[in-house]
Amino acid sequence: MRASLIQIDVKPDEPVESRRSRAADLVREQSGADLVVLPELWTVGAFAFEEFAAHAEPLDGPTSAAMSDAARDAGVWLHAGSVVERGEGGALYNTALLFAPSGALHRTYRKIHRFGFDRGEVKVMTAGKEIVTARLESPDVTLGLATCYDLRFPEQFRLLTDAGAEIIVLPAGWPARRRAHWSLLVRARAVETQTYVLACGTAGTHAGVEQAGYSVVLDPWGEVVAEAGAGEQVLTADFDPARVAETREQFPVLRDRVLGLPTPPPRA
Ligand SMILES: NC(=O)CCC(=O)C(=O)O
């Protein structure tokens, strides 16, 4: 299986329309890959909180339309990163979009863990409530979907594993300041779930926040298959999804889980 991660530079002086058509061209160039991945909120920038509302779009909005066309033209599965979705009643969500090679919108995932503590996403967005997996055909694999800050919550990844995920796709807008956390946590999630992890971040600086880059593909043993640098780059990796079952067979740690551990006593 071949995956291409497009670590796009979210340049604050580039109009969104220009970045959208640049991203679509980059997707078209990945014809021959099975799966192409874009980062979190790459149109507006994951830290440009004040601009979220102005750039919100419905699920059939301009980003969706451009990505659908690009997926169909390239003949690839396209995880188009996430957009600010304007949903029911005007609520905003950080929503990831997965397109089939036909261009059809195959699955959406609304980010569950919103970043910003009492600011940012928490203030302006509504949290998703559903654990989302997606079965692909050709290649015949199950993706588990999570977005950026979700990475810090291992319980979500356990649930994705229980739901059959073999490849976890994580679009992100992760800051350079916490790059050490990124490298550590993506690896931890791969080791504990025994899945491939495809983690695609952004490059450049937007809203005053330097982005980490360092998109990465990890195998179910936690080894790096391919890793980007800090700048804009397309990272391509070839790997064998059958290694998920092999790893779980050879090192069957998931079988040793003890479910229903007793609840801890209340804090003193
Ligand atoms: N966009 C995000 O979710 C940022 C997450 C982050 O900066 C962190 O977890 O650290």
Automatic annotation (TrEMBL):
Gene3D superfamilies (alphabetical): Carbon-nitrogen hydrolase
Domain of life (superkingdom): Bacteria
Keyword vocabulary terms for this entry: Hydrolase
Domain CN hydrolase: 1-241
Annotated InterPro entries: C-N_Hydrolase, C-N_Hydrolase_sf, UPF0012_CS
Keyword Transcription in record: no
GO molecular function terms listed in the Swiss-Prot or TrEMBL record: hydrolase activity
Family: Belongs to the carbon-nitrogen hydrolase superfamily. NIT1/NIT2 family.
Name the UniProt record assigns to this protein: Carbon-nitrogen family hydrolase
